[in-house]
Design goal:
Elements: H1 2-17, H2 20-52, H3 54-84, H4 89-94, H5 98-101, H6 107-141, H7 148-170, H8 175-201, H9 205-217, H10 220-230, H11 234-239, H12 252-275
Helix pairs in contact: 1-6, 2-3, 2-6, 3-6, 3-7, 6-7, 6-12, 7-8, 7-10, 7-12, 8-9, 8-10
């Protein structure tokens, strides 16, 4: 375990040295600053609306928060891909992996250490961004989305899906191909999720099944839709008037499938890396 922790520390240091992590943090802070500034200048109208039209104003504020969290969700995905996409493929191509692989350490420990380092980065970044949006909204409007903790955990889980696929792709693809692989799968899940939403609204079972199939291929969008469902008030769930929310709650079976998906992706990545000719 100490060797895994050491690899995690080296992975964290490498991301910091390459300034990818700092760029993600600075841009994230810029995003939060713009969100806070806009919300600050809307504060008067929101307070007035809460007195005169409380339900409508509450709905509008929730839509604003969900819009911000929708953007944060995408930023978490991009940060995860950019920091991890080169970690295996790039180091193998450059020969840098030999500095570690020639030491008395198993390849499974190397990959698990890298996973741990990126997992810590993912959780810290998600906490900064999601927590920033929620705290800013709370401070300026007094509003907190419902089920924010459960929704946040599902957003983090979505990030882990991308991380595991990035590590898996790095064991058999080049860096560029791995980036295309991961983002392409995310795109499949994204469009499939929207098709499932429209199919549900129009009672078209075929389109709904297409969306479900895309979620089985890549369950990331299903996790976001469940997070969005939980963090909306009942009125928005019922009428589905927000483009950033969802009126459908994925089943617990999908969450179980997602955890199995994560375990399988990481296990295959460890097997591939252990057998890879360096």
């Amino acid at each position: 375990m100490s060797r895994i922790a050491l690899i995690a520390q080296l992975t964290f240091h490498e991301a910091r040295r390459r300034k990818i992590m700092w760029a993600a943090v600075l841009l994230g802070l810029a995003f939060l600053a713009i969100y806070a500034l806009g919300l600050y200048f809307l504060r008067g109208e929101i307070i007035t609306g809460m007195d005169q039209y409380p339900q409508g104003t509450l709905t509008a504020v929730n839509m604003l928060v969900m819009m911000a969290l929708y953007a944060v969700n995408f930023l978490i995905i991009v940060m995860t891909v950019l920091t991890s996409v080169d970690t295996i493929a790039g180091e193998v191509a450059s020969g840098a992996i030999h500095a570690i692989a020639t030491k008395p350490i198993r390849r499974a420990e190397i990959l698990l250490g890298k996973w741990l380092g990126f997992a810590v980065m993912l959780v810290l970044y998600a906490t900064l961004m999601i927590g920033g949006v929620v705290l800013i909204t709370r401070a300026l409007t007094g509003y907190t989305p419902p089920n924010v903790l459960r929704g946040s955990l599902l957003m983090v889980l979505e990030g882990f899906i991308v991380l595991h696929l990035s590590l898996l792709g790095g064991t058999f693809l080049s860096t560029l191909a791995n980036g295309v692989f991961v983002l392409g799968l995310f795109g499949v899940a994204f469009i499939g999720g929207w098709m499932e939403e429209f199919g549900s609204l129009m009672y078209n079972e075929t389109v709904v099944n297409i969306g479900i199939l895309s979620s089985l291929i890549m369950p990331s969008e299903a996790m976001w839709r469940w997070a969005a469902y939980l963090m909306q008030p009942p009125l928005l769930r019922t009428f589905n008037v927000s483009p950033f929310g969802s009126n459908a709650q994925p089943s617990l079976a999908m969450v179980a499938y997602t955890f199995a998906y994560l375990v399988a992706a990481l296990a295959i990545a460890i097997r591939n890396f252990s057998r890879k000719d360096l």
